[in-house]
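Quick one: structure tokens for this chain, please?
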Amino acid sequence: MRYIPQTKAEREEMLRSVGISSSASLFECIPKEVRLKALPQLPEALSESQLVTHLSSLASKNRPAGTHASFLGAGVYDHYVPSVINHMLLRQEFYTAYTPYQPEISQGTLTAIFEYQTMICCLTGMDVSNASLYDSATGGAESMMLAASHTRRSRILIARSVHPEIRTVIKTYAQFSGIQVEEIPFDPETGKLTDIPADQTVAAVFVQSPNFFGIVEDLPAVSGASHNAGALAVCVCDPLSLALLTPPGECGFDIAIGETQPLGLKMSFGGPYAGFMAVKEKLMRRLPGRIVGETTDTEGRRAYVLTLQAREQHIRREKATSNICSNQALCALASTIYLSLMGPQGLRECAEQSAQKAAYLQDKLKKTGKFAPLFSGPFFREFAVSCSADAHAVNKAVKEAGMTGGLILSGKYPQYRNCLLLAVTEQRSKEQCDELTERMAAL
């Protein structure tokens, strides 16, 4: 809002209508000891045009990803977003602040959500998907509670190679749910999860593939070990990678979660995105959030309706699986449009280019003799390297060349000093990879 629409007289009238004489009275309920004693010195007021110029000057200090080569990943990736996606999202039928959770919402919105659910099931190899969640982290927390409820157990195992933010959110939910969360280590040589100490007290085993380091896990081995202990197998997966890799549903997993950011959503400083959650049919009635189902109306025509809503507003609280009520309908629609545009062949080409260009960059860095792969396992789009020089200095040199380098791993994994996590998408060119290598090796 660029201006305050109310006049002084109108504000005074509003105060009188609630029975107070001045706006200062609104703060009388706040103890005096915690109130600000005096306002800081405010700058001189600017006109609208001056303020817009000033804010534009501040905004210009940011470097949008579209203006330079970015090799930063760690869960958010610089993939190309076709212009038609924004054109469709801004149509008034979709672009609304209304949260679609009532059964009587429009058939157009329901159809779009149903298409989203269908595409997520096709990608993950699962039987049922909900209408999206906030993000992959809340998907992880919901999966944990679903598993504990289904197995009637209260112990969760999660690989340390799962994204740190997902692990943190799961632990936060567990703290107030009576669930014990234990982290299991990954092989320091391959980067894979190799030892799964599951037993008859474990409700679920969580693994991510490709994991935080970009390493592709042995999913059949993880699901087999989980099921041998009577536990559910949960996979955090990258939807773009599923254009190349065997989906978790075909590897025996019970639940697949993740984020649709690589599918038509800009990085946007970290969000919002859409979290997806899909399950096997046996868990359908425990799936949290909203699910759109297909039916027929009174005249026999195909119709869609919200169904199997397992939250406490719709069923008895003691039978509710979750109280999560909102989804990311607009972001989910963006991913639906993206998948429709790309089709199976286009999605596969995007994934292949990302994988091949990442392999090219890793090979170039190895040949300098100054960088070594941190893990030997196969990877997709992203890989970690140890640096002979200080990682901060390496990233600084890259920044001075007008590029964004990788994530310094010691911030998330303190044991990996002077190590970088680099991501390469289909947007990066061979020339950009060569320039990055030259800048990184110059130290």
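The CA atoms of residues 198 and 206 lie 11 Å apart.
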